[in-house]
Amino acid sequence: MISIVIPALDEETALERCLESTRDPRVAEVVVVDGGSGDRTTEIAARLADRVLLAARGRASQMNAGAAATTGAILLFLHADTRLPGGFGDAVERAVAGGAVGGRFDVRVRGRHPGFPLLSAAINARSRWSGIATGDQAIFATREAFAEAGGFEPVPLMEDVRFSAALKRIGPVAALHERVSTSGRRWEEHGFVRTVLLMWRLRLLHALGVAPARLAASYLRR
Predict the structure, then answer these.
(1) Distance of alpha carbon 162 from alpha carbon 193, whole angstroms
(2) Whole-model pTM?
(3) What are the residue ranges of helices labelled H in the chain?
(4) Sheet arrangement for strand 82-83
(5) What's the start-to-end Cα distance of the chain, in Å?
């Protein structure tokens, strides 16, 4: 069975639709881990999730806390502004039954900008070629692989990329064609081209060995 962990911070506008998408007979539990929201996030989570936890702010610490509190054989980490597709549980279990230690979904960035279809295709192609995923793609892993990888590193940025790379070293990872949809708000709020260039620049610098703390400082200044 699958345990879904959702790190959240001030996500009252997105969380309800996210939680509604997690309904699946293969899901044993859905845990929302709040990082200190000041809005109605925990209220919504208490109504629709199985458990609500509080953890130190930061996706890595929140996801690690959620993983420690769950019991499913498969862990699926879902951003609060991302929605799962119908039948996702069967897709995940088929991948693991086929020998994958983890994996991710293709993604569709939703929003009004005409560049989102091209952006979505680029993200999926890059991920399929590299074997590396980002958190927007709903990364999943067996509990054993999660433990062997050491969970998510407590870094302020790129925790998803680093975890995905660790999974790849452990065993086969699945690139599912089923699509999650994720909010395009950060591209819409900060400028489409500017945000695309920033994210690719950060990924390049990370690959060249720049510390995540320095990258986070650049990201927050955007």
Answers:
(1) 25
(2) 0.94
(3) 15-20, 41-48, 59-68, 88-97, 116-130, 143-149, 159-170, 185-190, 192-207, 212-220
(4) 51-54, 27-34, 2-8, 74-77, 140-142, 102-110, 173-183, 82-83
(5) 40
2-189 placed in CATH 3.90.550.10:
yes
Altogether, the residues listed in the chain come to a count of 222
As given in the structure block, the two tokens for residue 171 are 């065993």
* Helix, strand, coil % in the chain, rounded to nearest 5: 45, 20, 30
Q: What is the pLDDT of residues 44-99, one digit of tens each?
A: 999 999 999 999 999 999 999 999 999 999 999 999 999 999 999 999 999 999 99
Give residue 98's identity as a one-letter amino acid code: G
Domain borders along the chain are 2-189
Structure tokens of 198?
A: 């920033």
